[in-house]
From TrEMBL:
InterPro entries: CheY-like_superfamily (IPR011006), Sig_transdc_resp-reg_receiver (IPR001789), TCS_response_regulator (IPR052893). PROSITE patterns: RESPONSE_REGULATORY. The modification 4-aspartylphosphate is found at D59. It comes from the Bacteria. Keywords: Phosphoprotein. The keyword Lipid metabolism does not apply. SMART domains: REC. This is Response regulator.
């Protein structure tokens, strides 16, 4: 089964590490990337939107539209509300954590600073959300 992942990340280093971790883990041959919140919303709701992803990895601090607003839109729309959203962010602030869970985030992970720990975290995300978790987001 081919898994679709929407990776919403504006940091090019984190983006490449996440892609590499998914590749090494054998997950997500189809990793779609959005580099800002507006691009993520267009990817999910625009006229040329592809099939919905199995999971969205979403940073909070994004240009144009922040990740909390993207999360709000995903969880408010009946077409996307069941897609798991994993907040993968550098923010460890309680207000961000609580805001994300209040809006329906499925997981909140603070990005490890160490490269190997970061790749391990993304690999664990892949193992759980793409390997073990069952979802009705799409077939």
């Amino acid at each position: 089964m081919s898994h679709r992942v929407l990776l919403v990340e504006d940091n090019p280093d984190d983006l490449e590490l996440a892609r590499l971790a998914f590749e090494r883990g054998g997950f997500a041959r189809n990793v779609d990337v959005a580099r800002d919140g507006a691009e993520a919303l267009d990817h999910l709701f625009g006229p040329a939107a592809p099939a919905p992803p199995q999971v969205v990895l979403l940073d909070i601090k994004l240009p144009l539209v922040d990740g909390i607003d993207v999360l709000r839109r995903i969880k408010a729309d009946p077409r996307t509300r069941h897609i798991p959203v994993v907040m993968l962010t550098s923010s460890a602030q309680d207000r961000d954590l609580h805001a994300c869970y209040d809006l329906g985030a499925n997981s909140y992970i603070v990005k490890p600073v160490d490269m190997e720990q970061f790749m391990s975290a993304v690999n664990s995300i892949g193992l759980y959300w793409l390997g073990l978790n069952l979802t009705d987001a799409h077939s």
